[in-house]
């Protein structure tokens, strides 16, 4: 099914990643006659030419570019189309979004099946133009390694690994009949899958954080407050003591990276900020004073424009989700008013059929941003949050921009998305070239 997208998709052979890397160093791609959205400017550039060598952008000029001698060159005539950075989704759960919740808790469905679905979803995600994502919870390390090795197709993944949750927290995914491993129970299926760690007390939080770092996490995801989609923790509760939260922050900082937390309410967010957390996921129930605090402290707010819960959910879950959706407009407006460092993500979970709407989700941003500002948010600004991984950044180099020496994650788009954001919502039609790390994965020209 993954190969039906477009006949012009160019795939790397699984066993030839070393050869492909060598070839990339000896070859180049020249985009000619393109108008550049560089990731931050409000307008496109004059007609320009862009040279990519290996996995980096090496030249940008309004004058013709002559590639170096002895380099195999692929020329792409943009004919006035827009060349822009690849899209970035700062809040995904690739594995947990590729299967339903019932499948994830079904012991008859193996981890291998779940991983195969995740690999398919990663492939589709790249062909939707998302060249980098931050995975904020779930078994993802093996898939990331396969993508990086060229064994399968997908975006750059900044992995968190298992979500760290207290008992009764938003990441406590036990079924009603599953007892705590501390009180006569066994390790839960969610923990066995690598979806979450249930950790209580400073020592366990340290261990959970360090386990994720050992496995290759680029940042740590901690549950600091109640959730809308979970059945057992009310939306208003604050989770983890200050000391427990500090333990995660200290362990992450010792590895040169940071903690991001799931939190909606002022109390949960303020405790996280006091602990040294550098990013807040969600925050739709914040008051204006706490939004000002985020701005003062330079803490990122990774916001989503979420949808109401479907009618199939319980009354409690639908009521909680409505509170979150209702607070979204205030959160975006206050964040803009007080110049909070904003990032954006989708946070699709447990609904594989919804994943195809990843691009269309960007269109919700039109309520608060101009098309160019929305594009800046989902490219340049999101890349700033990825870069917080510091020493644990798996892809050193600049992302989210089109400039010399930046990593070559690029989209060639029909039309001008800085004026018509709707173009982004139809990647099959409008993304005529998709490049990640200097490799072309789609070219319909």
Task: Describe what this molecule looks like in 3D.
Residues 171-181 have a biased composition (Basic and acidic residues). Pfam families: Amidohydro_1. Keywords: Signal. Residues 82-440 form the Amidohydrolase-related domain. Residues 158-181 are annotated as: Disordered. The protein is of the alpha/beta class. The chain folds into two domains: 2-86 and 400-443, Urease, subunit C, domain 1; 87-392, Metal-dependent hydrolases (TIM Barrel), CATH 3.20.20. It is 32% helix and 20% strand. It has helices spanning 17-26, 94-97, 101-104, 111-127, 141-148, 189-193, 201-215, 242-254, 266-275, 288-297, 315-337, 358-362, 371-386, 427-430, and strands at residues 27-36, 48-53, 56-61, 72-77, 82-85, 87-92, 130-135, 156-159, 163-165, 196-198, 220-223, 259-263, 279-282, 300-303, 341-344, 410-413, 431-436, 439-443. Strands 1, 2, 3, 4, 5, 16, 17 and 18 form an eight-stranded mixed beta sheet that branches. Strands 11-12-13-14-15 form a five-stranded parallel beta sheet. A three-stranded parallel beta sheet has the order 6-7-8. Strand 9, helix 6 (189-193) and strand 10 form a beta-alpha-beta unit. The radius of gyration is 22 Å and the shape is globular. It starts with 16 loop residues before the first helix and ends with a strand. The relative contact order is 0.17. Mean pLDDT is 93; it is low at 1-24.
